[in-house]
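Consortium newsletter contribution from the modelling node. Members have asked for a concrete example of what our holo predictions look like. Here is one, prepared for the iron/sulfur cluster complex that several groups have been discussing at recent meetings.
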Amino acid sequence: MISRRECVKWALALPATVGLARGAMAQAGPKVPQKVAQYQETPKGNQKCDLCKYFIAGSSPTANGTCQLVEGSISPNGWCALFAAKA
Ligand code: SF4
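And here is the predicted structure:
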């Protein structure tokens, strides 16, 4: 369970985190923790990781992959606040 205080802290930090994450991508720097990116295992509306330009697919269409910006195993049906649609 995430406390209200932590949610507020992350909400305030997220815009800066987005900028840092995108900058880090260009420099192959450290990734953003899932909690900070507000990662969830389910889509948000019609947005999901396998439609995001930062998603790196796993061994099959349903297997977890990775993300260029966010740490750890990433579900193709997941979502986070750094979502950016593929062109
Ligand atoms: S939605 Fe977030 S976790 Fe998913 S691929 Fe895009 S940046 Fe990575």
